[in-house]
Amino acid sequence: MTITGTTKLAGVIGWPVEHSRSPLLHNHWCASHDIDGAYVPLPVPPGSLDVALRGLQAAGFRGINVTIPHKEDAFRFVDRKTQSALRAGAVNTIVFEDDGTTTGDCTDGKGFLANLHAHGVGNSRHAMILGAGGAARAVAAALLDSGCRITIANRTLQRAIALRDALEGGEVVEWDAWPGQLASCDLLVNATSLGLGGSAGYDWSGSLSGAAPDLIVSDVVYVPLMTPLLQAARMRDLKIVDGLGMLIQQARAGFNAWFGILPQVDDTARALLLHSLNGD
Ligand code: NDP
């Protein structure tokens, strides 16, 4: 890749940001579509988001992805928000418009649904969502808005109640009670950070004992790809959907806005990310 004064630029802001696989993905898409573009990781500490965004906009960047811990500050920063951003209460994709304004989107929820569809999963009837953080909120909003009944369970009950109130929809159950309600669900989503890094930390197998045979089990955690939850689900012959596809799907809208092409989710992109996650 040769970067010149006319190269289209985008990137991801986070703190830390070195773990992000977004540069790998976007630069792969630039190369495979023969686009004169580059996507860079940008470590920006908490409290410095505004000044960083203003600087990048002035320097001619097309836009920016925003990750932990900046998604809520990005929501406050942008001039206008998409409906998805308003529902999620967060922004992960910013477009620097030609007129000097900024538009913020949250693509996590749409990415989650697109990943389900890519795995041949149709619209769900009743989803059990575990978690009440940023990922859970985006997933819960997308499912609710698709017409799915949702039940939210979170270790800290008050956060689940606050999420239900913010979304103006859904039900809440206590954390210990969710496995008992699984029989009525056709989708289970782990949107907590449980399982990140492969640590079990939870009796997933026992929790799935009351699952209906057609339950789809999905995890937003993708490191490792086969999380303890997905392993337990596979042992019970339940259909599983891993979180890597969500990561790829949520990136497509930003790439389209900045570089002008909506990239397809091909096996090469998935293989590239898997290769990188496995460290080989
Ligand atoms: P947050 O910090 O906002 O939320 C974390 C959630 O996990 C909270 O609900 C928290 O519960 C819960 N939790 C943490 N530890 C435990 C535990 N020991 N037992 C039960 N619940 C626990 O994180 P995010 O929502 O931003 O991210 C969650 C995960 O989703 C991360 O692993 C992230 O990498 C992944 N993710 C994946 C994406 C993808 O594209 N595949 C996109 C975005 C995120 P409590 O409220 O009680 O603290």
Automatic annotation (TrEMBL):
* GO-annotated cellular components: cytosol
For the ligand (NADP(+)), the binding residues are 131-135, 154-159, 220, 243
User: Binding residues for shikimate, per the UniProt record?
Assistant: 20-22, 67, 92, 108, 222, 250
Alphabetical UniProt keywords: Amino-acid biosynthesis, Aromatic amino acid biosynthesis, NADP, Oxidoreductase
The stretch of residues making up the signal peptide is: none
**Which pathway does the protein contribute to?**
Metabolic intermediate biosynthesis; chorismate biosynthesis; chorismate from D-erythrose 4-phosphate and phosphoenolpyruvate: step 4/7
Could you give a single Gene Ontology term from the biological process aspect? Answer: aromatic amino acid family biosynthetic process
Lineage top rank: taxon: Bacteria
Q: Give one GO molecular function term.
A: shikimate 3-dehydrogenase (NADP+) activity
Q: Which residues form the active site?
A: 71 (proton acceptor)
Instruction: Give the CDD domains listed for this entry.
Output: NAD_bind_Shikimate_DH (cd01065)
The reaction(s) catalysed by this protein are:
shikimate + NADP(+) = 3-dehydroshikimate + NADPH + H(+)
- Name of the top EC class for this enzyme: oxidoreductase
Report the EC number(s), separated by commas if there are several: 1.1.1.25
Q: Name one Pfam family in it.
A: Shikimate_dh_N
Keyword NADP in the entry? The reply is yes
Oligomeric state and interaction partners are given as: Homodimer.
* Family note: Belongs to the shikimate dehydrogenase family.
**What is the name listed in the Swiss-Prot or TrEMBL entry for this protein?**
Shikimate dehydrogenase (NADP(+))
Originating species:
Neoasaia chiangmaiensis
Q: Which gene encodes it?
A: aroE
